[in-house]
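User: Last request for today: this protein with AN7, please.
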Amino acid sequence: MTRTGLIHRYRALLPVSERTPVISLQEGDTPLLPTCRMAEWVGAPHLRLFLKYEGLNPTGSFKDRGMTLAISKAAEAGSQAVITASTGNTSASAAAYAARAGMRCVVLIPEGQIALGKLSQALIHGAEVFAVQGNFDDALTMVRRVGEVAPITIVNSINPFRIECQKTGAFEIVDELGEAPDYHFIPVGNAGNITAYWKGYKEYIALGKCRKVPKMMGWQAEGAAPIVKGEAIKDPKTIATAIKIGNPASWKEALEARDESKGMIGAVSDDEIVQAYLALAREGVFCEPASAASVAGLKKFVRSNPALALSSATVVCVLTGHGLKDPERALALVPKPKSVLPTVEAIRGELGI
Ligand code: AN7
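Assistant: Here's the final one, the structure of the complex with AN7:
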């Protein structure tokens, strides 16, 4: 199949017309990777376990799914500038799509708290980046206020076109499996993605494209788990900077996804996230730490649900962003390369072969 981008591919199910200019980088159509040893690693060896590898989108995260429509609709409305608050990936995506559309892009990031890859993307695409002396929630509050008074389109997930096109992730999973999975594991930060996937599954079952919907299993980082705790967190803490969010914009919708699907939203520790991140890397899949929260969540869930340990259910874990986004985290977890003399003997000596 030729890559066309999401707006062309799912046009009939999106709010577009012939008048909508399509701003695309051929996003979507990401791999649904079968796993090798991960099912065993999570303690449920018989699961049919798949990884929706969203890191292979054009800017390296799932954010491109929603951004293609948000920027296209902004262009259709004649907007010349967009603004977003971001823990990194939204800013990278907004910057790239705005560049493509020839629009000005303004980005507010929490100072010193976003991964290097993401920052470099926003800057290289020419976004006007401001490091706010505060956290993501402070930055989002500012974006809402600026959006109210200035002629600029907000492209955070409070922009409904973002969620609307992110739902295509669910379409792709069902299109590929021929049915919805039994469980859908997903990291939760601002809670837009869990909202979008749930919308996608519900639309597909209404269209008769699947006969069931999955249980939506959302995972926050323990130090940034407002939905699990039931109250906003003033000073969220986690190494998974992408989901370091204390007051999610789509909180209510995430609870609906959880409750309507009979799923759950839980929390995993930074250590559990790191262990999943490393286990994924050991089978060739490099995602960013926040993404590994889905797999860490699955492992934790299996521990408290012995029935799942023996089950052959179909499970999809979404890996939301590429590992290259945060090279500093990867390097902090592994030994540095050893310096050797440029001789065969030196290498053989080191390797013992
Ligand atoms: C890799 O970029 O919020 O629950 O500003 O980058 O839909 O927020 C990123 C979120 C998961 C959480 N994984 O998704 C941003 C931003 C990765 C992410 C999430 C994010 P939502």
